[in-house]
Write a structure and sequence with these properties.
This is ferredoxin--NADP(+) reductase. It catalyses: 2 reduced [2Fe-2S]-[ferredoxin] + NADP(+) + H(+) = 2 oxidized [2Fe-2S]-[ferredoxin] + NADPH. Keywords: FAD, Flavoprotein, NADP, Oxidoreductase. InterPro entries: Cbr1-like_FAD-bd_dom, FAD-bd_FR_type, FNR_bac, FNR_nucleotide-bd, FNR_type-1, Riboflavin_synthase-like_b-brl. The chain is built from eight helices and eleven strands. By secondary structure, it is an alpha/beta fold. The protein has two domains: 92 residues, Elongation Factor Tu (Ef-tu), domain 3, CATH 2.40.30.10; 152 residues, Nucleotide-binding domain of ferredoxin-NADP reductase (FNR) module (Rossmann fold, 3-Layer(aba) Sandwich), CATH 3.40.50.80. The radius of gyration is 18 Å and the shape is globular. The two termini are 36 Å apart. The structure holds flavin-adenine dinucleotide and adenosine-2'-5'-diphosphate. The site of adenosine-2'-5'-diphosphate has 13 residues, from strand 8 and helix 8.
Length: 260
Amino acid sequence: MTLPDAQTVTSVKHYTDRLFAFRVTRPQSLRFRSGEFVMIGLMGDNGKPLLRAYSIASPSWDEELEFYSIKVPDGPLTSRLQHIQPGDQIILRPKPVGTLVHDALLPGKRLWLFATGTGFAPFASLLRDPDTWDKYDQVIMTHTCREVAELTYGREIVESLKGDELIGEMVGDKLVYYPTTTREQSPKMGRITTLIESGEVFRDIGIPPLDPAVDRAMVCGSLAFNLDIKALLEKAGLREGANSDPAEFVVEKAFVGDGV
Ligand code: FAD
Ligand code: A2P
């Protein structure tokens, strides 16, 4: 091992020219809660590690670690990271943190997971965690992307759940998958925020509007998306929670946008 905190890439799958997923070996000592993120990266040209925050997309029981990544053409890290191959090494700082964890929510009946784009990553972990299915009667996974192909990674995870040896039976009929697109035709069009405001999502699923007594939510997307969903959740009477102060919803940025 030549890199500090080096882990070896075990597989890579490209989904679109902007999205790919990869798996790496897991440090034996790494413990994390599903939904948390770590710093990963490559050695920079200046000999210093070039690190970025990445949600762990695999569940906490998995032997390997999975990540779901954007490819930013001129991005310092992902312009290079997108070319990794099995056998290559990446740097992984084994210090998981984050707010999208069950501990930050009070007990509830229904869990909403709201994602846009690569914001699906922490939910790929949580959806494969037995705790998620143990704690809730219903789990609603919404994923909004511009184009249909950008939904594929999430759809594959969702479709794998029922046949999963560990959690398949627990999932049962509890899961509602609600993918939407905004810039390419698909069975359900529109921003999830618009579909909440109009009440369409509740009519589609056949459930009452958001209610702080039963509904819990986790949010992960762009800053603009997070702010808009947060406003809708607060309007419905849900309060933002944290590890130290659990409440009805939690939010995390899927990336730090320009000027933020
Ligand atoms: P950067 O210089 O970091 O970013 C360049 C620009 O690209 C940004 O200003 C932004 O406009 C855009 N951008 C960056 N990341 C994204 C993204 N994910 N989706 C859309 N646009 C983006 N990225 C992932 O791909 N997967 C993850 O699981 C993930 N988890 C994150 C968790 C947290 C808590 C945070 C803060 C960020 C996370 N990111 C994730 C973003 C990641 O840290 C990097 O920004 C991303 O890998 C691009 O790195 P870069 O050096 O190539 O470009
Ligand atoms: P739209 O196409 O209407 O902008 P992005 O790639 O810009 O991060 O967006 C990913 C998805 O999230 C797109 O479908 C986009 O819809 C949607 N989106 C972006 N901003 C918001 C927001 N503030 N509220 C709801 N959805 C949003």
